[in-house]
Structure formats: structure tokens, C-alpha cells
Give the backbone structure.
Amino acid sequence: MLVERLRPHNTSVFGEISRLAVKHDAIDLGQGFPDYDGPAAMLEIARDAISGGLNQYPPSLGQPGLRAAIVAERARRLGGEYDADGEVVVTAGATEALTAAVLGLVERGDEVVLIEPFYDSYVAAVAMTGATVRTVGMVPDGGGFTLDVDELRRAVGPRTRLLVVNSPHNPTGAVLDRRDLALIAELACAGDFLVIADEVYEHLAFDPRQHLSIASLPGMRERTIVVSSAAKTFNVTGWRIGWALGPAELIDAVYAAKQYLSFVAPGPFQPAIAYALTHEQQWVAAERAALHEKYRFMSTALRELGFDVKRSQGGFFVCVDIGSDGTRFCRELPARLGVAAIPVAALAERSHWDTLVRFSYCKQDATLREAVDRLRRA
Ligand SMILES: *Cc1c(COP(=O)(O)O)cnc(C)c1O
């Protein structure tokens, strides 16, 4: 029954692995969600909002207090001013911001450049528009991965409308540096195309790496839609609060599509996220350090188990190269050892990703220890 344009995106390995994880009572290091809560005061504000009757449609661009908090926090941390009235829209998670940006800004017949492996919603969003995807692969670099600059140059052309860049990157953990981003910026300016900067892990670049937004590079503010989210910063992946920032002309286009998708983002969570952005940056810094420690623990343990562990510089994930079919490995792992992981092949089109497997470490230390104990039984 499904329409042809969505058929290639019908089955997600995420769903399958999650079901297997439940069935075999496995520790789920597949999907990237934390198994512990964000700041307690933030949770309390959401509860109060519901008790206090904040349960109807909020303003469709997002509550003014949240919009102001988003732009103020960003200006403090990264510089770069956005107008809370007109240059930001609150969405139902970053996923909706990404989809609405693509729906609002890409015509049928345009080309969209994606850097693979990629968050799986990008390619489905492009498929909904009837545009064409061109992929650029990341390449091995000093134990991790980085942009393939030469391929990127070849991939962009006169029909390129949009490029999506994600840093810190899911799934590799690569944090792109100024040189990489400057190349994308140069191509975008020369070819006059738009950039979506997926910055959902913007607070989670591990020391000494620092998050740099492509929107801050010369000529880029006017052509970049920055997408971010509370999900990964405050451990609230179920709250569905994300946002898009950019010049008014681009945000108007995102909003035009967004109003017919979710219409509005969840109301009672918006004051809680406004509070957290403004008052919980110390919690965020501590969480970043804790995740860095969890990454060190997992990568050391996986290496001791004999895995070829790839370097990650931020975010929720570490990848290992198992040297054989990663999809098969991930399908068998829940039953075999009681652990779930995601094959990177699910996030890419090219076959050279087929041997990579992604583990998420955004879990309580006890969860990670138990997962490692189970993997040791192999
Ligand atoms: C989790 C994730 C998203 C989606 O964020 P939500 O706010 O939960 O929709 C988008 N991009 C990347 C790279 C992610 O890892």
C-alpha cells in the first residue's frame, strides 16, 4: 500500500533491533536515548506546568520565553545573534525541524547532499519532496572519521539546493573542525546553496574539541538553518522539543511546513526547557564530562574484548569495525549475549559501512558495566 517514494524507507532497523532487545531482555545500547533523567528542577517545572493548566495550544512559533532562552543561550556560548521574534521556530524535536526545513525549501528535481553515515530521517525527508539525494562518504582519519573533501567537491553542482552537515556527528562521533566546515562554506557560497546544520550534540563535544557552528563562518549565516534540540542536551528525548534558527526568510519557510506537520510543539515542556537553557548549564557541563568518561570506559572495554574501536570526539556513540556483516551481528546479539547495538549500514547506502556497529554509551554506569560483562561471555 505504501507510496513508492517512501518504500525504500519503510522498515527501520531501529524498530527491529528494539523489538529484539525487548524480546530477549537485552541491554539496549542501540537507540541513542539516556536511561537517566535530566535536571530535577526542569522536570519539576514541567509537572507544575501541567498542574497549572498549561495544556492548550502554545503559540505556533513556540512560547516567547523559550524562543528568548534559545537565542540568548546560543549568543552567550557561541556568539551570533538571532532575533527571538522571527529567526527561531520551536518544533516537535529536531526531527520535525529537519523535515520541515527540507519540505519548505527543497523543490522536486533539486539535489540534496548528505554526508554518510547519516541520521536516517534526512533521506526520508528528501524522499517526501521528490528531490534527489547525493551522498558523500566520510573517510577514515587517525582512528576515527572525517569528511571526504574531494568527494564533496565532486558531489555539489548546479542542481544542489541543500547540504546537511551534522557535527558532533551521529554515528561516528566526529567533531568537524574549522577547515572542514570552511570547505563546505566555500562550496555553499560559490554554488549558492543552503546548509542545514544539525547541531543536536552541540553541547557534547569532548574536551579539548569544541563545537563550531558553520553558521558562524563568513557568508554562512544567511544560508544556514541551524537545527538543535533539548532531547540530547537535557535527556528528554520523549519531550519532543527542538528548534530551527536562521534568517527570517528561511525560518518562514520552515514554519510554513511545520504548521501542517505537528502544528505546535508540546506546550508544558516549553517553560521547562527555557528554564534549563538559562539555569542548568553547569548540569550540562557535568554531563558532558560524564559522557566523556562513559566513552572512555566503553571504548577501553570494547578494545579489551578485541574490537577495532573507532575514535569518537563527542555525542552519544562509539563505533567498532567487526570485520564481518554488522547487520547480522546486531540481529543476533540480543539473543546471543543480551545486548543490543545498531549496524551502521542502517545509516548509510554504501557497502563499506557494512562492518561497522554502533554502541551508545549514554547510559548509567551500572548499565554499561552489565553490558560489558555480558559481552565478555562471548
Ligand atoms: C537524535 C538526533 C536527532 C533528533 O533529535 P530529536 O530532537 O529527538 O528529534 C537529529 N539528528 C541527530 C544527528 C540525532 O542524533
Q: What stands out?
A: The pocket of pyridoxal-5'-phosphate is lined by residues 32, 93-95, 119, 166, 170, 198, 200, 229, 231-232, 237, 242 (CB under 6 Å).
